[in-house]
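Structure first, sequence second, as always.
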């Protein structure tokens, strides 16, 4: 299927997940974080969820890192939709968040974290395929950002759904994931 078809299909699928199942799915994804080795990670980029789109609740991911890996720096993205760029600001217990026009919680201010300092990026998605390519919201913001990161940055998707076989219109600007965490499995992708 094409990206726009998958985007529509999976936005609808996600909206139809009942609240009780959504809680279970979110807890299962956080539980899967234990299956990855975080020992070499010093700084992560973590998007915050768009709640009205039933996005994976990354506040649970945030709590996981604060509890189990308190020394890892957490950088929260703040998007400039005029030029489709992302700036990252360091998260702390004092961080004030405001929703932008797309209902994405973002830090109001904080210490800027450069892309070169980020070791792992949690990448928002609607669906992914068996090769690690993803369909996002269609603006290309994250693919642009990932192109500015180090070559060895770990790219992690979070999904309530299993992968589709193939996204038909992947192009040269699409950056594949390193891993995708689902409710019952971590998918690993070759980075050749």
């Amino acid at each position: 299927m094409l990206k726009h078809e998958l985007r529509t299909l999976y936005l609808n699928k996600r909206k139809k997940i009942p609240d009780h199942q959504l809680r279970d799915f979110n807890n299962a994804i956080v539980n899967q974080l234990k299956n990855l080795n975080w020992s070499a990670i010093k700084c992560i980029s973590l998007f915050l969820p768009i709640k009205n789109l039933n996005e994976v609740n990354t506040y649970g991911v945030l709590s996981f890192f604060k509890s189990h890996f308190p020394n890892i720096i957490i950088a929260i993205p703040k998007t400039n939709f005029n030029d489709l760029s992302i700036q990252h600001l360091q998260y702390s217990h004092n961080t004030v968040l405001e929703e932008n026009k797309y209902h994405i919680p973002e830090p109001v201010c904080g210490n800027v974290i450069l892309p070169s300092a980020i070791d792992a990026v949690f990448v928002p998605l609607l669906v992914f395929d068996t090769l690690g390519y993803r369909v996002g919201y269609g603006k290309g913001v994250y693919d642009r950002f990932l192109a500015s990161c180090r070559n060895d940055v770990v790219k992690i998707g979070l999904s309530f759904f299993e992968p589709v076989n193939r996204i038909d219109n992947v192009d040269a600007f699409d950056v594949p994931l390193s891993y995708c965490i689902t409710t019952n499995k971590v998918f690993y992708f070759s980075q050749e």
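Margin note: The domain at 3-36+50-188 is CATH 3.40.50.10420 (Rossmann fold).
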